[in-house]
Design goal:
Blueprint lengths: L1 H38 L4 H8 L8 H41 L5 E5 L5 E5 L9 H22 L2 H8 L5 H5 L8 E2 L6 E7 L21 H9 L22 H10 L25 H7 L3 E6 L8 H7 L4 E3 L1 H6 L15 H15 L6 E6 L21 H21 L7 E7 L6 H4 L12 E4 L18 H8 L3 E2 L3 E2 L2 E2 L8 H5 L1 H9 L3 H8 L4
Parallel strand pairs: 4-7, 4-8, 5-6, 5-7
Antiparallel strand pairs: 1-2, 3-10, 8-9, 11-12
Helix pairs in contact: 1-3, 1-4, 7-13, 12-13
Length: 528
C-alpha cells in the first residue's frame, strides 16, 4: 500500500516537473518576442542586470503587459496540457469506482491511432502517455533555448565571457582628488538627464532623422551654447557603447566613466548591498571638494539600483516619488506612468533649488525626467497634438519644458556661478519609433553645456561616448584634470584623443563586452 502511494507521488512529481518545463519553454519564447517588441535589441548584459535587481519601482504598465502577453499564455498552455494528461486518468478512476458499485455504463475509448469506440466497462487509453508528456516538455524547452539563441547573441556572449580582457585595466585611470585642481570660486552644477533623448530627433537639416525638428528648443540650446559633435554644423552627440543603454547604466557611465555590467555568476543586488564599492564617481569627487549632492527623480529611486548608487557614491540627498508623497507634494495615492509627471518634477526642482542656493556650500543638483520613456511616452496637460504619434508629442513637450526651465534658471541669482549640463541618459528603446528613422541614421545621445567658464579646444569632428561626460563635467566647472582622463573617460575640453578616437567604437564595444577580472574584482566588489 505504502509502495503504491509513494509510486503515485513519484509519478505526480514527474508529471508536474514535465509541465513546468513545458510552461517554461512557452514562457521563454513569448518573453523573448515580448522583450524585442517592447525594448528593441537590448543586450544580454542588460537582461542579466535587471534579473539581478529588485522589481520595486518598475512601471506597472510594463509588468501588466508582460503578464498579459507572456505569463498568462504560458500558464494557459500548461493548463491545457495538464488537462490532456490528467482528465483521462480521473475518468478512469471514476469509472472504476462506479463499476465497483455495480453501475455499468457506456464510455468512449480513444485509441492511440485516433479511432473511437464505445463499449461497456472498457479501459480508457490515455490521450497522452507519460513518455509523450516528457517528449513534449523537453521539445518545448529545447526549442525555446534554440529560439532564444537565434533572437539574441547568446553564443557570442558566452564566447566573449570566456575571454579575459586586460583592456579596461590598462586604460583605466583611477579617479582621485589628487588629479583635480578646483577653481578658488567653486561653481554649482545642475545636471539634467533627459530620458531617452537623442540628437537624431532633430531635423535632417541639423543632422537628425526627421524632416520636422521634434525638439526645436533643445536644438536651439545646443546651437547657442557648448555642444560637441561628430560632424560639422550638425547636432551630434555621444555614442552609446556596450552596457550603457538603460537609465542607471547611462547615469553610471556619465558619472563614473564606465559601462555597467554584472556577470551572470555574481551576486544579486539584494544579496550584495554595496553598489560597485571599487568605483569612484563624480559625486564622491565633488563631495570631497565640499559640494552637497542632490538627486531628484519622479519615480521610485530604488528601481535599478539608483538609490544605492547615488547614496553610496556621493551621499546624495534623494528626492523621489515617495519623498514627494511624504512631503505632500503630490496627492495621496497619486501615481501616473512611473510616479509623477515631469511638469511636477520641474516645479519641485525650482522650489528646492531656491532653498539649496541659500546654503554656503556649492551644490550638485542632478535630476532625471521620465515622460519620454518608451514605448509611447506620457502625455501631460502641457503637451500638444502636433505630431502623428504620442511619443513624438511627448518628445516635443519635453523640449519645451526643459527650455523654459533653463530660462527660469538663467533669471535666478545663483545662475552666474552655475553650470548647466543637459544630457540624454541613453538612446530610446521605443522600437516602433526607431523603425521610422532612415537606415544608417547616426544615433547619439543629446547633450549641451550651458554657462561654462571654459572654452573647448575643439567641438566638431569629435568621436566620443557617454563615458567621456565624467571628466568633461568636471572640466565644465573649471576643474583642471591632470592627464585629462578619468576612469575610461576623456576630458572633451582638451585636445587629447578619446578612447573612441584612439581605438574605434567597434574595438571599444568588443573589449567592454569581454570578461574583465579587474572590473569584476576591483570595481564591482572593491577587492584588491
Amino acid at each position: 500500500m505504502r509502495g503504491r502511494f509513494v509510486s503515485k507521488i513519484g509519478r505526480g512529481f514527474a508529471a508536474a516537473l514535465a509541465l513546468l518545463l513545458f510552461g517554461f519553454g512557452i514562457l521563454l519564447v513569448l518573453a523573448v518576442d515580448w522583450s524585442v517588441d517592447f525594448f528593441g535589441e537590448i543586450s544580454i548584459d542588460e537582461i542579466i542586470f535587471h534579473l539581478k535587481m529588485p522589481l520595486q519601482g518598475t512601471d506597472q504598465n510594463t509588468i501588466l503587459d508582460f503578464i498579459l502577453r507572456c505569463l498568462i499564455p504560458a500558464l494557459a498552455g500548461m493548463f491545457v496540457l495538464a488537462c490532456l494528461w490528467g482528465l483521462p486518468r480521473m475518468e478512469k478512476r471514476l469509472r472504476q469506482k462506479r463499476m465497483g458499485q455495480g453501475r455499468p455504463y457506456l464510455e468512449l475509448r480513444i485509441r492511440a491511432g485516433g479511432r473511437k469506440e464505445i463499449g461497456r466497462g472498457v479501459t480508457l487509453i490515455p490521450v497522452i502517455p507519460a513518455w509523450t508528456l516528457w517528449l513534449i516538455a523537453l521539445a518545448s524547452l529545447a526549442g525555446s533555448l534554440v529560439y532564444a539563441c537565434y533572437r539574441y547573441p547568446v553564443v557570442e556572449y558566452i564566447k566573449l565571457q570566456s575571454q579575459n580582457s586586460t583592456w579596461i585595466e590598462e586604460e583605466y585611470v583611477e579617479p582621485d582628488s589628487s588629479l583635480l585642481s578646483f577653481p578658488e570660486q567653486k561653481r554649482n552644477l545642475i545636471y539634467i538627464y533627459l530620458e531617452s533623448m537623442e540628437s537624431a530627433y532633430t531635423s535632417t537639416e541639423n543632422g537628425g532623422a526627421f524632416q520636422e525638428d521634434l525638439i526645436p528648443e533643445l536644438t536651439e540650446l545646443a546651437k547657442e551654447n557648448l555642444h560637441f559633435s561628430s560632424g560639422v554644423g550638425t547636432l551630434g552627440g555621444a555614442v552609446q557603447v556596450e552596457n550603457t543603454g538603460w537609465t542607471i547604466a547611462g547615469m553610471f557611465a556619465q558619472t563614473a566613466g564606465l559601462s555597467l555590467k554584472m556577470p551572470i555568476d555574481s551576486n544579486t543586488m539584494g544579496e550584495y548591498s554595496s553598489f560597485f564599492p571599487g568605483v569612484t564617481s563624480l559625486g564622491e569627487l565633488l563631495e570631497a571638494a565640499g559640494y552637497k549632492n542632490y538627486l531628484m527623480i519622479g519615480s521610485d529611486a530604488v528601481f535599478g539600483g539608483r538609490k544605492n548608487y547615488f547614496t553610496q557614491h556621493g551621499d546624495y540627498t534623494i528626492y523621489d516619488y515617495y519623498w514627494a508623497l511624504e512631503e505632500g507634494k503630490i496627492p495621496e495615492d497619486y501615481f501616473v506612468f512611473w510616479g509623477f509627471e515631469d511638469w511636477r518634477l520641474i516645479e519641485m526642482a525650482k522650489e528646492e533649488l531656491l532653498t539649496i542656493a541659500e546654503q554656503e556650500e556649492p551644490f550638485n543638483f542632478t535630476m532625471l525626467t521620465v515622460d519620454t520613456h518608451f514605448p509611447d511616452g506620457y502625455i501631460c496637460p502641457l503637451c500638444r497634438e502636433e505630431h502623428d504619434s504620442s511619443y513624438k508629442n511627448a518628445l516635443s513637450c519635453s523640449s519645451r519644458q526643459i527650455a523654459a526651465f533653463v530660462e527660469w534658471i538663467s533669471r535666478q541669482d545663483f545662475y552666474e556661478d552655475t553650470t548647466i549640463i543637459i544630457a540624454g541618459d541613453h538612446l530610446t528603446m521605443a522600437s516602433e519609433f526607431v523603425e521610422e528613422m532612415p537606415a544608417g541614421t547616426e544615433r547619439s545621445t543629446y547633450h549641451v553645456i550651458i554657462n561654462s567658464p571654459v572654452e573647448a579646444a575643439k567641438t566638431e569632428n569629435r568621436v566620443f561616448t557617454t563615458l567621456d561626460m565624467f571628466p568633461t563635467t568636471l572640466a565644465a566647472l573649471g576643474v583642471e584634470i591632470e592627464g585629462d582622463r578619468l576612469a575610461l573617460g576623456t576630458n572633451l575640453f582638451s585636445d587629447r584623443e578619446t578612447l573612441a578616437e584612439e581605438y574605434g567604437i567597434a574595438t571599444m564595444n568588443q573589449e567592454l563586452s569581454k570578461k574583465s577580472e579587474f572590473y569584476n574584482k576591483k570595481l564591482m566588489y572593491g577587492s584588491s
